Amino acid sequence: MRKEIMIGIGRHIESIEPYKPGKPLEELERELGIKNAIKLASNENPLGPSKKALAALKKGLTGLHRYPEGSGRRLREAIAQKHKLKPEQVILGNGSDEIMDLAAKTFLSPGDEAIMGDLTFAIYPISVTAHHGVSVRVPLRDGRHDPEAMAARFTPKTRLVFICNPNNPTGTMITRRELDRLLSRLPQNVLVIMDEAYAEYADDPEFPNTIENLKRGAPVLVLRTFSKMYGLAGLRIGYGLSTPEVVEAMNRVRLPFNTNSPAQAAALAALSDEKHVAQSLRINREGRRYLSESFAGLGMKFLPSQANFIYVDIGRDGGAVYKQLLRKGVIVRHIEGTWLRVSIGRPAENRRFVKALGEVLKIK
Ligand SMILES: *Cc1c(COP(=O)(O)O)cnc(C)c1O
The pTM is what? Predict the structure, then answer.
């Protein structure tokens, strides 16, 4: 029966493991019969969306019988203006996930190689494999991308390099100098995809300004999203910045109405809500400090985070602790081994997580 259904699936697809999203709050609450579970598992903005975005969303609803403006012209213009680029350098996606996939679809021929970290965003290898490419996975070094080791893997088949900066799940960053060196060693016809879903949170002065790299002519595709700092994960909208040629090529295979009109309207309003951004940054910075101090107090190793989550070594089976935390109504993410990834929440959520973790670790 099962075998029959499988007939017709591309052989390259068989090896793909489906992406595992964080457990939804409602699901856990239903399972436990409780109402007050907390989710620190998908790096969402704990403050929610900007009020301005919500107002724009409501206002746009009367036009729902119309197809969206396919390329999202108004939003692209606003994004271009914000970054001092041309609108032809901006492409919108149904989340920045879609733009990664579009890049793999556009730039890979069968057998072409995409270089990426071995502990990074799980979507890259899925998209690469789905579009007949080969993922070349380069070990991180001390939880950080290792651009030297990545450059050592360039071959004539290399077409893409994925750099998640700050990296998910480790929260670490590569520096301006490291990136510049990698770019200086880049062979012809290779595009570097800088996935900057968390760049708005980064405050290290060495964090690279990749839009400046782009303006100086570097072959980069910078990916940003409205799902994290802007609090619009449910609407599915993100954007890519690159040369007009790269954007034009991706537009050839972009489905015509990939981003919806309410999402475009809300994102446009969110972009200019500086107060919401400042508030989100502040709560994140405070939470990052609180969680770091708490982990240190519990004697746990964690990686320095430039993002809105922390990767922490709890020193024992992460899968078991993850499940025990679930029973206390706390959802985090178990990535591998003894490490958990915890999103930074509101102060009360962070305290509840630390308390639950302490209790779980004593139970053993
Ligand atoms: C959350 C996240 C994204 C953004 O995904 P969207 O599709 O824009 O919601 C991109 N890259 C990484 C590494 C992420 O963690």
Answer: 0.96
